[in-house]
Every structure is written in structure tokens, then in C-alpha cells.
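[Automated response] Your request has been received and processed.

Submitted sequence:
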Amino acid sequence: HYGMVGKLSPKDRETVAQTIVALSDNDKAATAKLYRENGYKATSQNGKDDVDDAVLHRFASFHFDKIDLSPLTLDNGEKMDIMDVFRSNREKAVPTWVEEGRRLGGLLVGVSAQAARPISLAKEWRPIAKQALRKKE
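Generated structure:
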């Protein structure tokens, strides 16, 4: 094992794979649950620790999928401009698996944007993630 997840523990590798599958399925609840249960913490400006699933999903998609600057629809149906989402939510704890993943994800998303060939990393990585999860079973 080498590359993005080479230095990670088996548990963290599994979490990365599950996150990629959840993102490629556009499953906001599953993505948010994986982030919450595996060390990622964010707070909203009003001090609440229960950041919206949609917000965590969008953050995860920046880390492991693509740059999406479209307005965000919160769980309660309210629409939010993406810049307001960034202004009103802060990362409090970023686990190693997110840090390593977003380092590579940011690089690849940046390169694809520069090449004017935007891609969804989660969709590209999904078969590898599924294979990693099957091996674990």
C-alpha cells in the first residue's frame, strides 16, 4: 500500500473508501456520519457543534471529490450561498485521513481544473474504493 492512503491505518483506509462511495452515491447522511464518527469536527458560527449534514457532505466533496461552488440546500430546505457556508462554519478537528486525502484530492482537482477537464474524483475512485471494501469483508 502506498500513495494517498499508504500511511493510514486499516481503519482509516476503510473510512476513506466508505467516504468515497458515499460521495459518489451523493449520500449526504452517510458522508456526514462517517466524518462525525471518525474524528472530523466542525462548528457553526453560532457555536453549535451539530453542523448540518449537507455542510459536512459539501466539505467532504471538496476534500475527496470536486470543487462545487453551487448554493447549498441545508437539511431544513434553506438555501445558502457557498461563501456564506464557508464564513459561518469552522473546522475544529481534522483527522489524518482527511488531511492526507484532501492534500491529494486538492492537487488532482486543481490539475483537472487547469486542464479544463473537471472530473469527479469520487466517481473515478469508486471502483477502487469498492474493491478495498470487498477485500476487507
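Summary generated for your ticket: The CA atoms of residues 26 and 126 lie 12 Å apart. The first helix runs from residue 10 to 24.
If you did not submit this request, please reply to this message.
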